């Protein structure tokens, strides 16, 4: 079936649905809803059998939904209405939530219901929930709705007139933090409900900032609202009963100035911060601590687990270097298996926001890509143990190549990979010219790079990019990985595999040294970075400042034929035609 995705942006959920629908044999194209007036003509040009809207902030024009069946993904349970569904769910500390797929009509969020799916809430930030639990539920519900539409026999369930809960936009008057009276739990919940957008508007040192991200701290104390310490670029701020770590800030936009963007809090406040102590988190924190760290290590017998979680998966020069130091320390331990990752997001490569804010973006780009290359090289040249990349969430560009550097890649079934660089005007590095063809073959590697499209975990497994699919919920992924790692380490063949990988690395090095791959990749990257007219600089600026493109990128508008690489019955969530009255549902787009 020819399906058209209509969305404000090709965000994480749009990418997931694009990949999953193609996996089930559908032909899929994308049209960005950049101009409501031109959308009807654009839809007519595509002539789809079905329109699916994964992420829209405005209503589909009557001219479209009256001519085509349009299924809208609403990030809330059946009956929930309004633009801030997931924000309210976190703000109100809901236990259960979900997603509804409904048919567009004259009233927002009030159309007939084709499917819904529910999921338990967890103590994660909104953007994290959206990429994981919401994405799983939305995908499951959309796949069921598409099957029902294709059958031609299913009648969607009408929502009774006058029912449902329509809630307003969750604005800053509700999000505001009263540092003098609110406990840590309340502060963290408000911060998580506003991450990654719009943030919580607050004041620091006489200036207005949006706060992004929030993590409780159990030991540091001070006067409510006082800044107490820094850690890995984050700031710690006191509450009435504890403190919170805030990793990122975004300045409030001033009239006539370009849009602002998120930065590590210490960098954003450069020159404004008082003298604060750096409070480093131990690499191996106590299990009973309530604190924040973006890198941690633990051991279980002869298995090491090196976890990392950077906001949005972006890795700055400094973050890459810290992770490399932690990796080297982990490699000094007497383990036979080392698991890298295992959290709810893996990596999206170099940190474009930090690069954009640098005094010399070209020099910072160069430093960042070299730091990424150093990290990937360390993984590739580890020959005394088995290294596993545990990809629990999205991985893109250099982050995807970091995953591929390991001996085995274990990927949660709901993850999406973007193993390409072209959309940012880059050739790419991180040894992709070695790892990608080694796993997928030269022809498939070239196709992945040129098409520049997301691939599902199932397709990545089919292509050879992934060795094992982990069919788990986001919350269970870490535990599943630990069980799988224990099984791997206990295999009698583990030691012989370690010996074999060293021989293979030596053989590959004799054919074409890693240094040659790196030098050739970096020569291309350096020319781009230091050419002020290279498209990379404008593309980076537009990405960081979230500028709308003038039109839908051509590579998205071409209808791509589907490929049968997934079992259509594996939806991975509790899906119903109409949500159970006790079930809740959904998120805002992030």
Name some characteristics of this structure.
28 strands; 590 residues; 21% strand; disordered C terminus; alpha/beta; seven-stranded mixed β-sheet
**Share of β-strand residues:** 15-25%
* Structural Rg: 24 Å
Annotation, overall tally of beta strands? 28
- Provide the structure class: alpha/beta
**Number of helices, where a helix is a run of at least 4 consecutive DSSP H or I residues:** 20
Poorly predicted residue ranges: 568-590
Shape call: globular
- Percentage of helical residues? 25-40%
Lateral strand order in the biggest sheet: 2-1-3-4-6-7-28
Mean model confidence by pLDDT: 94
Distance between the termini: 28 Å
Please, could you describe this protein's structure?
There is one protein chain. Strand 13 and strand 14 (243-246) form a beta hairpin. The chain contains 20 helices and 28 strands. The strands form seven sheets. Strands 2-1-3-4-6-7-28 form a seven-stranded mixed beta sheet, with helices on both faces. With 590 residues, it is α/β, with parallel strands linked by helices. Helix 1 runs parallel beside helix 5.
């Amino acid at each position: 079936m020819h399906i058209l995705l209509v969305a404000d942006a090709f965000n994480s959920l749009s990418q997931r649905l694009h990949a999953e629908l193609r996996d089930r044999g559908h032909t899929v194209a994308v049209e960005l809803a950049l101009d409501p007036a031109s959308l009807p003509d654009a839809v007519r040009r595509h002539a789809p059998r079905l329109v699916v809207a994964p992420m829209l902030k405005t209503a589909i024009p009557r001219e479209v939904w009256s001519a085509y069946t349009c299924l809208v993904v609403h990030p809330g349970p059946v009956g929930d209405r309004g633009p801030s569904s997931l924000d309210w769910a976190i703000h109100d500390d809901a236990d259960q939530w979900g997603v509804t797929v409904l048919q567009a009509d004259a009233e927002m969020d009030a159309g007939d219901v084709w499917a819904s799916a529910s999921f338990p809430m967890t103590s994660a930030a909104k953007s994290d929930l959206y990429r994981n639990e919401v994405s799983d539920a939305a995908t499951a519900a959309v796949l069921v709705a598409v099957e029902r539409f294709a059958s031609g026999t299913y009648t969607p369930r009408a929502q009774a007139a006058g029912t449902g809960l329509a809630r307003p936009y969750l604005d800053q008057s509700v999000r505001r933090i009263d540092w003098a009276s609110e406990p840590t739990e309340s502060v963290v919940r408000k911060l998580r409900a506003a991450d990654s957008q719009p943030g919580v508007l607050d004041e620091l040192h006489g200036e207005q900032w949006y706060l992004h991200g929030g993590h409780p701290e159990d030991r540091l104390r001070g006067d409510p609202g006082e800044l107490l310490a820094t850690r890995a670029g984050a700031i710690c701020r006191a509450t009435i009963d504890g403190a919170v770590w805030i990793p990122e800030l975004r300045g409030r936009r001033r009239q006539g100035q370009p849009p602002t963007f998120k930065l590590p809090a210490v960098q954003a406040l450069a020159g404004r911060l008082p003298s604060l102590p750096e409070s480093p988190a131990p690499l191996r924190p106590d299990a009973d601590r309530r604190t924040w760290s973006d890198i941690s290590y633990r051991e279980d017998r002869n298995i090491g687990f090196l976890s990392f979680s950077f906001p949005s998966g972006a890795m700055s020069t400094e973050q890459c270097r810290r992770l490399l130091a932690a990796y080297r320390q982990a490699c000094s331990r007497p383990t036979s298996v080392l698991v890298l990752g295992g959290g709810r997001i893996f990596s999206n490569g170099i940190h474009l926001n930090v690069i954009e804010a640098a005094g010399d973006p070209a020099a910072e780009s160069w430093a960042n890509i070299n730091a990424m290359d150093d990290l990937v090289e360390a993984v590739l040249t580890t020959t005394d143990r088995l290294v596993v990349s545990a990809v629990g969430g999205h991985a893109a560009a250099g982050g995807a190549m970091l995953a591929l550097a390991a001996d085995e890649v274990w990927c949660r079934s709901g993850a999406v990979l973007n193993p390409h660089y072209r959309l940012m005007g880059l050739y790419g590095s991180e040894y992709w010219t070695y790892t990608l063809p080694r796993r997928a073959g030269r022809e498939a590697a070239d196709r992945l790079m040129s098409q520049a499209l997301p691939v599902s975990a199932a397709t990545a497994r089919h292509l050879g990019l992934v060795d094992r699919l982990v069919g788990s919920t986001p919350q269970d992924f870490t535990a599943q990985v630990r069980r799988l790692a224990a099984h791997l380490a206990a295999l009698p063949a583990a030691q012989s595999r370690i010996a074999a990988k060293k021989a293979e690395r030596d053989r590959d090095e004799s054919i074409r040294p890693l240094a040659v791959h790196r030098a050739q990749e970096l020569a291309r990257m350096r020319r781009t970075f230091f050419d002020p007219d290279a498209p990379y600089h404008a593309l980076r600026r537009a990405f960081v400042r979230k500028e709308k493109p003038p039109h839908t990128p051509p590579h998205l508008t071409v209808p791509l034929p589907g490929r049968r690489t997934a079992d259509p019955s594996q939806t991975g969530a509790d899906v119903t035609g109409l949500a159970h009255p006790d079930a809740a549902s959904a998120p805002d787009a992030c």
